[in-house]
Amino acid sequence: MMDLIEELLEEAEKEERELHLAHVDLMLSEMRKLETAIASNFAQAEEEKQIIDEWAINRNVKLQEKIDRITSLLKLFMESQDAEVKTIDLPNGKLLRRKTPDKIEIVDLEKFLEKADKSMVTLQPEMVKPNLNKIKAYYKMTLKLPEGTKLIEGEEKFNIKLNEVNNGTKETGTGVEQTEAYRDVV
Asked: Model confidence over 9-29: pLDDT tens digits?
């Protein structure tokens, strides 16, 4: 009789272990499903981010084209002004016209070194290097380029600098007060 009870007890314990293992396996299965759902959420989020990015790029391309058009109109306006006018300061920003400096470029170092004045080169131990500032000064004095060099003329650059908008607030000394002020442009 004891053997029968022990046998039944062992059988019950074996079934309980199998049931417990089945429960553990079920938890592992649920964990796999949850991890797959997380990966799916991230993949879906990436796809949606890409859709949003493409939308923003398409929208901003049109806006950038408008900015480029306005910039070219402002550049034409600035070019129509007298040559002495370098800056126009307006309430919403500045129009700036500046000329970049001329540059000298060495195109053939050996040819340049054959006839170069000593002041046009900088001697460093074991190294000979053209002194572009001295070459430019020589060019400005004589209007002759040393052999082996070429002149890259500076070009006029056009810039627009927009003023920051303070969202209808006006800074005064110690604090900020609301203002309804506006400016008429004539």
From this structure: 888 899 999 999 899 889 998
Task: Return the sign of the alpha-carbon dihedral for residues 104, 106, 111, 117.
Answer: positive
CB count in 10 Å sphere of residue 140: 9
Q: Where are the domains of the chain?
A: 12-80, 97-161
Please indicate, yes or no, whether the overall pTM of this predicted structure exceeds 0.70: no
pLDDT at 50: 95
Listed in order, strand segments (DSSP E) in the chain are: 87-90, 93-99, 103-106, 121-124, 127-130, 149-152, 156-162, 169-172, 175-178
Tens of pLDDT, residue by residue over 133-175, are: 999 888 888 988 888 898 888 888 877 777 777 765 444 444 4
Q: Which of 93, 92, 103 is nearest to 149 (CA)?
A: 103
Q: What is the spatial distance between Cα 20 and Cα 1, in angstroms, rounded to a whole number?
A: 28
User: DSSP letters along 44-70, please?
Assistant: HHHHHHHHHHHHHHHHHHHHHHHHHHH
Longest dimension (CA), the chain: 125
Band of the pLDDT at 52, cuts 50, 70, 90? very high
**Rounded to whole angstroms, what are the CA distances from 137 to 102, 115, 146?**
11, 16, 12
Length of the chain measured in residues: 186
